[in-house]
Amino acid sequence: MDQEITRWINAPAGNYAALDMAMVAITRYGVPLLVLLVVVQWWGRQERPHLRHTCIAAGLSFLVGLGFNQIVLLFVQRVRPYDAGISHLIIERSADWSFPSDHSTASFAIAAAFLLHGFKGRGSALLIAALAVGLSRVYVGTHYVTDVLGGAATGIVAAMLVCLLYREGTRADRLVTGIL
């Protein structure tokens, strides 16, 4: 089923120039743009200490999620779908294993951090962006659907862990959120 859904999402790749350009742009620039959106919010005026705490939590979630992925990669070495003849690749080849998707991990970690800290509007917008990043990774041929789901899971778990361990209002939090 994973292979069939992956084929279905990847099927239009290479046939529609405008859609290809959009998906390649999302896959290349989606995560950096999400990071930039988090950085820019540092100077937000509403709920400044809470927003800054959430920005730090999003960054930590991003890093913890990618750390989880490195541990998973020690045990799971899944071949990329283009190497298995499942997808048609329209971007450059990746050097690492397919599962889980680092792009999805990073995107969903950021979105989950904002949602878990009560920023429903911003978190929902970031979640839509994370879904677009995940979809783009399958469309361009570099991931299976379950790679994206696995990346989303590690990102969300990382955000939950950071939410539990990085407490707002602690001495360290006040020190970091008071910068600039």
Any key phrases for this structure?
7 helices, 69% helix, 180 residues, mainly alpha
Describe this structure in words.
This protein is mainly α and 180 residues long. The protein contains seven helices and no strands. It has one domain. Helix content is 69%, strand content 0%. The mean pLDDT is 94.
Q: What's the helix-strand series? A: HHHHHHH
The assembly state of the depicted protein chains is single chain
**How many individual β-strands?**
0
Number of helices: 7
Topology of this protein?
Elements: H1 2-10, H2 17-41, H3 48-75, H4 102-116, H5 120-139, H6 145-165, H7 171-177
Structure, briefly:
The chain is mainly α and 180 residues long. It contains 7 helices and no strands. Pfam families: PAP2.
